[in-house]
Amino acid sequence: MTGRPRGFAFAEFSDATRAADAIRRFDAFELRGRRLRVNDADDKPPARAPRVFTPQPAEPAPFMMEGFAGGEQNYRAFNRKGGSRRGLRAKKRSLR
Length: 96
Description:
32% of the residues lie in helices and 4% in strands. The chain has 96 residues and is mostly helical.
């Protein structure tokens, strides 16, 4: 939102004492007008299992529905003009 980079980094320390000291000294420290947030990094959480795709039964196309004036030919003529699904619905309403 501000256009400034998020500005984060990771640092490794030789022992836990030095890491704890750095956290204590630099957490909430202000640097160039920005407040630092220094803490222990958490391990990356395990990856989620992939979603399983379950196909749903197909619904009939709008031109095959009962009551659509003109049927498939009208739909094809409309589609050749580069119409959208929203435009097709409007046309269907106007033909009632």
